[in-house]
């Protein structure tokens, strides 16, 4: 048996072993994600998984509704926003207000400037883990 054949066989066995250990229920797999932005006068969803809708509730404020609800509100989410201009004005994806909510059905995500004023972004990427 050649070295290439041995490496191929080993890779195949490793793949089969990993396949039995990691599936859709593994906590390291994202339960939902979405790439969206506010372009012109509308929310544009470019790609998503387990996201039913993204609604703009105010400038820089969005509600992301899950297609299949989380088991509870004890999930972790992270988001990143792209600067809307080339002037170096940064955008930050955050939850800042006590009125922002995180439930099993949806999460409120806010986008703000570094001066802490709400502002839209042409691209926001949200990932949810549970």
Question: How would you portray this structure in words?
Answer:
- This protein is mainly β and 130 residues long.
- Helices cover 15% and strands 43% of the residues.
- The protein contains one helix and eight strands, in the order αββββββββ.
- The chain has one helix at 3-21, and strands at 30-39, 42-49, 51-58, 61-66, 76-81, 91-94, 106-113, 124-129.
- The strands form two sheets. A four-stranded antiparallel β-sheet has the order 2-1-8-5, with no helix packed on it. The protein has a four-stranded antiparallel β-sheet with strand order 3-4-7-6, with no helix packed on it.
- The model has no long low-confidence stretch (mean pLDDT 87).
């Amino acid at each position: 048996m050649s070295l290439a054949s041995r490496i191929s066989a080993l890779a195949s066995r490793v793949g089969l072993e990993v396949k039995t250990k990691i599936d859709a229920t593994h906590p390291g797999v994202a339960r939902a994600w979405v790439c969206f932005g506010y372009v012109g006068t509308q929310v544009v969803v470019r790609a998503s998984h387990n996201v039913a809708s993204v609604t703009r509730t105010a400038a820089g404020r969005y509600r992301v509704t899950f297609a299949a609800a989380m088991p509870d509100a004890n999930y972790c989410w992270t988001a990143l926003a792209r600067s809307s201009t080339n002037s170096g004005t940064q955008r930050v994806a955050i939850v800042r207000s006590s009125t922002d909510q995180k439930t099993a059905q949806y999460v409120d995500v806010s986008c703000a400037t570094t001066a802490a004023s709400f502002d839209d972004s042409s691209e926001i990427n949200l990932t949810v883990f549970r």
